[in-house]
Amino acid sequence: MEPAGFNHSSRRMGFHRVLLCIVLALAAASISARAEQQALPVTEIAPGVFVHVGDVALMTRENEGAIANVGFVVGDNAVAVIDTGGSVREGRQLLAAIRAKTDKPIRYVVNTHGHPDHAFGNAAFLAEGAIFVGHKNLPRALSMRGQFYLDAFRGIMGDELIDEVRLVPPTLLVDDTLKLDLGSRTLTLRAWPTAHSDSDLTIFDETSKTLFAGDLLFLTHVPVVDGSLGGWMQIMGNLSALPAERVIPGHGSVSDWPAALADERRYLDTLATDVRISVKRGTPISAAAETAAASERKNWRLFDDYNARNATAAYSQIEWE
Amino acid sequence: MIGHRFRLLCAAGLLGAALGAPPASVAAAEPYDPWPGLVQDIFNNRPMNDGSDVIAIEMPYRAEDAAIVPVTLRTKLSSDDVRRVLAITLVIDQNPAPMAAKFELGPDARVSEISTRVRVNSYTNVHAVAELSDGKLYMIKTFVKASGGCSAPAAKNAEEAKNRLGQMKYREFAKDDQSPTNGTREAQIMIGHPNNSGLQRDQLTLLYIPAFFINELHLWQDNSPVLSVESGISISEDPNIRFTYVSNGAKLFRAEARDTAGHVFQKDWKVDDSGS
């Protein structure tokens, strides 16, 4: 019920004036929030090693694609960035986080692989004069899949976030291993055969014995098979032998190494076993995808978003065995 | 008083939401239905009869992987029906190449089920049109939610895919209800091939990766045709056809596949008559 006197003309004028003030205040607040560059929250998990742990979620407009773990390492002379996020917006926030910690030049931007949540932010670092580093297969991966990713994510995230994205390929390619020097700080990069994707790279900080595993390691977030299930299982031995004390997965929390691999190994083994049984039995691919690795559902987030697709990919590979 | 403040807060809240809202996306227009045009282009505007008693189609409502979407076609004619299914055409309405495949059923093989995997480019109706020996067309349809199949990256593992080009595999499946005299068999043919759609663009060169795909497949039991397939880019990488047919006691199963570059791939296999 309207308060007494509300319809009086002078009261109405007052009401409109107050409303106008509120509108202007909101507009001002909104504009100033956009003008000031937010910094991505990061944690120093070892001296000079900074990480932002992404949301365990699908890329959306709301989260600006910030679902992967991204980070940077600061040496005496220079900084290396490891993955740039799921949008240029996130990339800029990461850059702001770096600048809040150090003035040192960003010498390298390393992509652990070519998926959108790890590489869409690359353009935010173009003006830094950094060298972009990646697996020798990464330029081809970006050239073959880049347009598909842009189109797919434009539909999900909208023009504003995707218009800025540039698929910046690496110019420094890793074939086997490569060492980067940040000034009394060495990063050892290693290129892997096709596993999670066909361009997987790990980065090992010798100083702190910290391993950036990229998407060769998933925690909490169900592992995504976009390369070769068999290939991924085959590298587990060598991967677990890397002399790291702690690991930054592509998704999930910073953890002890190699203990952190256990859950993922179990998931991949279960998936392979279940799919192999289905193929042997002649179960059609769609039925196999519904049941494969069902025992793992409770162990992972986003299981229903990815597991059937993992199983479909695995089935079409195992069929050729 | 309370009402007054409430109105202000409400109005402010709405305006705040408006200012912070993401840019409004263009309102979706009524989706264009390509089917009438396809009936003209593919079927010469021949009348379509209701096919729900003639054939069935099974596809997932929501595809897990738009580049590998399973589809199963089944004939529903009873054994005493005088009519025979001559061919089934699979049409994925919204795909860039909507005619996914035309399956011609060998006159003596009595194929009753065909499964394959297709690429689906967007949310779309899928039609299956059977041509029967009575000279009529019978149509059914389903709907699939998927997107990006036709330009989806081929070959998750490019090296492996290259090594497989033209390799053919044949497999028979055990049928639970198979009696020794039944003769019904289920088999599968796989051909290693990228089935490049020609729609995928190399982001560095900005050139399109050329179309390169299997366009013909013929299957025989000894010399009797089982299935002939005319196919295009809507068929997934490594074309895979699984089918149920009636064996004529043949000792050999033969396949011949052709692609757009003029390659001919041929292979034959001894039919496993152990029943497994």
How would you briefly describe this protein structure?
Chain A has 321 residues and is of the alpha/beta class. Helix content of chain A is 39%, strand content 20%.
Major pleated sheet of chain A:
7 strands, mixed
Quaternary structure state of the chains depicted: heterodimer
And the CATH topology of chain B?
A: Immunoglobulin-like
Percentage of residues assigned to helices of chain A: 25-40%
The portion of residues assigned to helices of chain B is 10-25%
Order of helices and strands of chain B: HHEEEEEEEEHEEEEEEE
Mean pLDDT of chain B: 84
Uncertain regions spanning at least 5 consecutive residues of chain B: 1-28
Integer-rounded radius of gyration of chain A: 23 Å
Q: How large is the share of residues in beta strands of chain B?
A: 35-45%
CATH superfamily of chain B: SoxY domain
CATH architectural category of the domain at 43-260 in chain A? 4-Layer Sandwich
Give start-end ranges of low-pLDDT stretches of chain A: 1-7
The SSE order of chain A reads: HEEEEHEHEHHEEEEEHEEHHH
Top CATH class of the domain at 43-260 in chain A: Alpha Beta
- Mean pLDDT across the residues of chain A is 92
Textual characterization of the structure:
By secondary structure, chain A is an alpha/beta fold. Chain A has a domain at 43-260: Metallo-beta-lactamase, Chain A (4-Layer Sandwich), CATH 3.60.15. In chain A, 39% of the residues lie in helices and 20% in strands. Chain A has helices at residues 9-35, 88-101, 116-119, 138-157, 159-162, 229-240, 262-281, 285-291, 303-318, and strands at residues 43-46, 49-52, 70-74, 79-82, 106-110, 131-135, 172-174, 177-181, 186-191, 201-205, 210-218, 246-251, 255-256. A seven-stranded mixed sheet of chain A has the order 1-2-3-4-5-6-7, with no helix packed on it. Chain A is globular, with a radius of gyration of 23 Å. Residues 1-7 of chain A have low confidence and may be disordered. With 276 residues, chain B is mainly beta. In chain B, a hairpin with a 4-residue loop joins strand 7 (124-132) and strand 8. Chain B has helices spanning 2-20, 35-43, 158-163; strands spanning 48-50, 55-58, 69-75, 85-92, 99-105, 113-118, 124-132, 137-144, 168-173, 184-191, 214-221, 224-231, 240-246, 252-259, 264-270. Chain B has a single domain (31-270), classed as Immunoglobulin-like (Sandwich), CATH 2.60.40. A nine-stranded mixed sheet of chain B has the order 1-8-7-4-5-12-11-14-15, with no helix packed on it. In chain B, strands 2-3-6-13-10-9 form a six-stranded antiparallel sheet, with no helix packed on it. Chains A and B meet through helix 1, helix 4, helix 8 and helix 9 of A and helix 1, helix 3 and strand 9 of B.
